[in-house]
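quick one, 268 residues, struct below
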Amino acid sequence: MNRKKAREKDWIEQFCGLVHLCVQQIECDDKQESPDAFVVLRQKRRRVKVGVEVTMYHSDVSSKKGSPARELYSNWLKIERLLLDLARNHPQLRGVLVTVRLKRPAHLPAGHEARALAEKLVRLAASMVPQGSWKKEVAKAPFPQPYESVGKCVRAIALACIGLPDWLHWDLPNAGSFGLFPARVKAILREKEDAPYDWEDAQERWLLIVAGSEPAVLKTWGAPGPEYVSDMTELRSGLFHRVLLLDASSTYARELYRTPGLSPLAAN
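---
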């Protein structure tokens, strides 16, 4: 089995394991193409053969201006470096985990505006550290002066006392949640529906979309929340019985679409 097929098999096994499906067999050898694999499941005491087409998620690879997700993540990395550098001048932030939550739709500035945001975020975080012992502090927009401009893109900032004096870390935990766009998922679905397939005697046809190849999708800091795949209600398919999502970087799997009348995927 070549590397590509081995990876596809691993993703199928990961998805099936996360949704607690009873897998009896996976046919995924080098000769198997379109679909990429056949999976034999045991569901409610019956044998079900499923054809699975696997595809990687890319937010909008055709865009000349680049992906919004990539841009968001790239801007955050630059701001994070500024934050870490600036925070060294504030000893009260040592041993503190600072979590930044963005507003929706997500936006982070670049250039000199990014530095201005980083400077105000650091000063705001430093002002939140109380005297004496503490565990957690949270501030939500609108922020007090002179930090009100932070509220243009930041919804909340939370501090947690980790207790490690030399530890300094800033997180943007919902960066990844803006990497999955409904329009792009629909475009992937249309592209896959136009391809030729030999489904043999498969009783169901699945499309498994695997996220995790782009930094902004990958960096989800654990299982994403419901907003990770928001607004998929209009997703439809005339070919696939189920459209599925696997975030290969976390323990997150979800059924985005199923043909009306089919039962949700569930454990036996």
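The chain has two domains: 3-61+179-258, 68-175.
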